[in-house]
Write a structure and sequence with these properties.
Chain lengths: 110, 116
């Protein structure tokens, strides 16, 4: 079983739609959680950290459920520029290593 | 913000040759640098963790004699792919964590290696 699992998609949605991505992780000792965005042939860029209390940044809302080892990302009012691959990332003890999920591809169409 | 550069951004080489990739933190000092590899349609896989002045720690399945890592200063780490073969063709990305602390890793723009 992979340490971080995501639905690879692609998710095809129209502009303005709301889309949700899910992620599960297997290591209960994981300490920090993030969503990264990666555009084609580019490096990943940090989108937001994820906290148990949930956090929101504009159109993006992230949620963490430690009991279920489940992380989510909600994107409201999708824009064309949101088209990218969204990577779920967890860190191990001591925040040393980032473990990446395979990513979920989002395609927003006009 | 913290900037990490990589050089070269892409390289094409013949099978059997060695290729060196540089990773530099431009506006901060990095205690730790990480090297990742990403094959098409797959996620980033950590290859090794390097700390300035000490030997790199390699992930399971990564050959340390094939992927030589040198972290000679707080702003520079290099990855040398020795005797490259076509199966080494991949996107190599480095990241760096600041000496000033914090969890965030700052990623370089990546190097696309194609071995013919």
């Amino acid at each position: 079983r992979k340490e971080v699992e995501q639905d690879p998609g692609p998710f095809n949605v129209p502009e303005g739609a709301t889309v949700a991505f899910n992620c599960t992780y297997s290591n209960s000792a994981s300490q920090s959680f993030f969503w990264y965005r990666q555009d084609c042939r580019k490096e990943p860029k940090l989108l937001m950290s994820v906290y148990s209390s949930g956090n929101e940044d504009g159109r993006f809302t992230a949620q963490l459920n430690r009991a279920s080892q489940y992380i989510s990302l909600l994107i409201r009012d999708s824009k064309l520029s949101d088209s990218a691959t969204y990577l779920c990332v967890v860190t191990t003890t001591g925040f040393q290593k980032l473990v990446f999920g395979t990513g979920t591809r989002l395609l927003v169409s006009p | 913000g913290a900037v990490v550069s990589q050089h070269p951004s892409w390289v094409i080489c013949k099978s059997g040759t060695s290729v060196k990739i540089e990773c530099r933190s431009l506006d901060f000092q990095a205690t730790t640098m990480f090297w990742y590899r990403q094959f098409p349609k797959q996620s980033l896989m950590l290859m090794a963790t390097s700390n300035e002045g000490s030997k790199a720690t390699y992930e399971q399945g990564v050959e340390k004699d094939k992927f030589l890592i040198n972290h000679a200063s707080l702003t520079l780490s290099t990855l040398t792919v020795t005797s490259a073969h076509p199966e080494d063709s991949s996107f190599y990305i480095c990241s760096a964590r600041s000496l000033a602390g914090g969890d965030e890793q700052f990623f370089g723009p990546g190097t696309r290696l194609t071995v013919l």
